Amino acid sequence: MRERKYRAYHDKWGWASPDDIWISGEGMVYVDYRGENGDKIACYTEKTKELHVMDYIGREDKNSKEIYEEDIIQFGEQSDLRATVEFEGAAFMIHWHQPNAVTKNQGDYMYETWFVNPHVPIKIIGNKYDNPELLKK
Question: What are the two backbone dihedrals, phi and then psi, of residue 132, each rounded to the nearest 5 degrees?
Answer without folding.
Answer: -65, -25
